[in-house]
Write a structure and sequence with these properties.
about 325 residues, alpha/beta, Rossmann fold, Diaminopimelate Epimerase, Chain A, domain 1, 2 domains, five-stranded parallel beta sheet, 11 strands, globular
C-alpha cells in the first residue's frame, strides 16, 4: 500500500449485540487511535440503510464494513460514489452467505482493501489485515496496540466460530450481548489487558439471569416437527441469547434445526445440532437473511403476525368464557 493519511474513520459492524462484530470494530478503532473514529452497528436487515446513510467529510476518509454484508445494488452504487469522492472503502467478512454472492452486482465496489474468508471470524481477519498495513505514521505503535488486544480478539474468534477452546469466551460474549454494542465498544476500547471492566462484569451477571429466563421461555413454547429424511425442526420463542438457548434446546436431540423467534429483536435465528449437516446459510439467504452454515438468521414478518393471531385466538376464547353468564 502507498502512503496515506486517513481522515474520518467510519466503521459499520454487525450488531446490535454481536461479540465478534463489536470486537472487529474495536480492532479497527484501536489501530486508528488518534483519529476521528465513528462506530455504527447494524443488524443484517438494517445494513443497506445504515451504509446508504454514510457521508464523508472529504478525501482521506475511510469506511470500514466488518462482519457484515448488504443486499441492494443501490448500496454498491452509494459506496462507489463515496469512493469517487475520495473515500477509501474496506470490507472484512467471514459469513458464508456473503462469500457465496461475491460476484453479484451488489458487491461491485472499488474497494481499497478487503479480506473475505471463513478461515477466521471478522475480528481476527481485521487484526490480520491491519497488522499488514504500512501506510500510516508510527505503524509499529499501532500494531502494538492491536497485539495488546489480541487475547480479546482470540476469544471473539473462538466463540463466533463455535470452537470453544478458550473457557472464558462464552462469558465475554454473554457480557457483550447483554451490555449492547455501543456500550461494549466503549468498554473494550479502554482495555489494556483481557480483564472485564466493572460494567462488563455486571452485564455478565445480569446476562446469566436473563439467559435463564430466555431458556425458560423457549422450553415453554418449543414445538417439534419432522422435515423428512430424519431431519427435525424445533421452533420456539426466546428473549435474546439465541445461540445459548438453541444449544440448550438441541443438547439432547439429533439431526435437528432450531428456529428461534427473538421477541426482543423480532428476528429468527437458526442453529443446528452438532450432527446436523443442513446449510443454514442457504436457508437464511433464501429468506432475505444470511450467516454461516451452522448459525444464521433472517426476519419474517409472518412469524410475528402468526403469534399475534394465535394470541388473539387463545386470549379471545378465554375472555369469552370469562364473560359468559355461567362464569359470573
Amino acid at each position: 500500500m502507498g502512503k496515506h493519511a486517513a481522515g474520518k474513520i467510519q466503521i459499520v459492524s454487525h450488531g446490535p449485540s454481536c461479540f465478534d462484530g463489536v470486537v472487529a470494530a474495536v480492532t479497527v478503532a484501536r489501530f486508528y487511535q488518534g483519529f476521528n473514529v465513528i462506530p455504527l452497528f447494524a443488524a443484517n436487515q438494517d445494513a443497506d440503510q445504515v451504509i446508504e446513510e454514510l457521508r464523508i467529510a472529504g478525501p482521506g476518509d475511510e469506511i470500514w464494513i466488518t462482519d457484515l454484508s448488504w443486499n441492494q445494488r443501490a448500496t454498491a452504487e452509494h459506496l462507489r460514489r463515496l469512493g469517487e469522492a475520495g473515500a477509501r472503502v474496506f470490507w472484512i467478512d467471514h459469513h458464508r452467505s456473503a462469500l457465496r454472492r461475491l460476484g453479484s452486482p451488489e458487491f461491485d465496489v472499488p474497494f481499497s482493501g478487503k479480506l473475505l474468508t471463513e478461515e477466521f471470524s471478522a475480528s481476527r481477519l481485521a487484526y490480520n489485515f491491519l497488522t499488514e498495513r504500512n501506510d500510516l505514521p508510527d505503524i509499529e505503535h499501532r500494531r502494538a496496540a492491536l497485539r495488546t488486544f489480541f487475547a480479546v480478539i482470540d476469544m471473539a474468534d473462538d466463540h463466533d466460530r463455535w470452537v470453544h477452546r478458550i473457557p472464558e469466551s462464552p462469558d465475554w460474549a454473554l457480557a457483550v450481548q447483554t451490555l449492547g454494542s455501543i456500550e461494549s465498544y466503549r468498554e473494550l476500547l479502554q482495555l489494556n489487558e483481557p480483564k472485564m471492566t466493572p460494567a462488563l462484569t455486571q452485564a455478565l451477571e445480569s446476562g446469566r439471569r436473563a439467559m435463564r429466563q430466555s431458556m425458560d421461555l423457549a422450553d415453554s413454547t418449543a414445538r417439534e416437527r419432522a422435515l423428512g429424511d430424519g431431519l427435525k425442526l424445533v421452533t420456539a420463542c426466546c428473549f435474546g441469547y439465541s445461540s445459548e438457548v438453541a444449544a440448550h434446546i438441541y443438547s439432547n436431540r439429533v439431526n435437528t434445526i432450531v428456529a428461534l423467534l427473538d421477541m426482543r429483536s423480532g428476528g429468527v435465528s437458526l442453529r443446528r445440532s452438532a450432527d446436523c449437516t443442513a446449510d443454514l446459510s442457504k436457508i437464511a439467504s433464501a429468506l432475505g437473511g444470511g450467516g454461516h452454515a451452522a448459525a444464521s438468521g433472517f426476519v419474517i414478518e409472518k412469524a410475528k403476525s402468526a403469534l399475534a393471531a394465535e394470541l388473539s385466538e387463545v386470549v379471545g376464547e378465554s375472555i369469552l368464557r370469562a364473560l359468559s353468564p355461567g362464569t359470573r
